[in-house]
Write a structure and sequence with these properties.
Alpha-Beta Plaits; four-stranded antiparallel sheet; 12 helices; 402 residues; alpha+beta
Amino acid sequence: MPEYKKIAYFDCFAGISGDMCLGALVDAGVKLSDIEKELKRLPIKNYSLKSRKVLRNGISATKVDVIIKAEGKRQKAKGKKWKDIEKIIKTSQLSEKLKQKGLKIFKSLFEAEARVHGEPFNTVHLHELGGIDCIVDIFGTIIGLDALGVEKIYTSPINLGNGSVKTEHGILPVPAPATIELLRGYPVYSSEIPFELTTPTGAVIISGLKSKTSPLPETRIERVGYGAGNKNIKTMPNTLRILIGEEIKADRGEDFVTIIETNIDDMNPQIYGHVMERLFKAGALDVFLENIIMKKGRPAVKLTVISKEVDIEKLSSILFQETTTIGLRFYNAHRKTLDREIKKINTTYGDVRIKLSTLKDKVVNISPEYEDLKAISKKTKIPIKKIVEEIMSLRNWPRIKL
């Protein structure tokens, strides 16, 4: 039977910021009063939360603002070091689970700032990001996701915006250095909108919560929330959309892979062996070639790679570097595989690895490892097919339940 896991999908078509996260969670049904109650467990004060409904380019969304009182503004101006934030979190009355999530997020934020400014981790200051509003945005998001029972987070590619932004360090290009540092490894793009759509706080929420980049997986949607950004944008609704639901996990042995394809009609065929070797070493699940006829009757080769999501960029880079292709095609595929296990058996030729494939704990396929067979054949001068026949005739293999 399929398994279900509660997920949140961050649809960052207009970027992401801390207040947009809070607004989207409240819009999805988390009570602001519940978030405020949990936030009181943090030893911070001089702020309040305000929520209101707004329209962003025809879309109804929730805007949540952190209102800082005068005392809080003076505190923000000082900036904070890691030891200050760590103390706030560790001395709070939050649950241990929320504390650990907060510590990981802020640690990654300090690490990014230290790299950007070339300062030691323990001495770098957070200015805008060390303020009460940043702490409230991050912990409010963690609390809201926890209240919804979210176990896993996915994100779309992230719109960064364009232009410049004013900071404590002066005018900086969008995305801000800390933002791009935090989003290393995530697919991002820059729209023509002259505005900072993704802030460092939004970036650290995405990366700190270990969000996985993916198209929306097969999910039973339960809630949808729209969190509003500060500005109205004429060309798109300035909102973060969060989808909450149950991800439908496939049965054991089922998963999703990405197929990468390209047609090549102008490359020396001797190169394909080298390309395939590099792709396999880089993590390709399978690589194969097909003869095809392209336009104008030109003979060509279709090169197909089966890839895990995490390896797509790496494998694509190899294809562009090592072949003459100028374009790749991608599509997702659902696959079902048998469970596999490798065991060693003792034969007259010595130990041989055997691959066992099982369906519902029953062995349905048995295959001796080719590399072992090749080594035996090379040593004994016996044909591989003869060795296979002798090994497969054995039925008293220890530790193997047929």
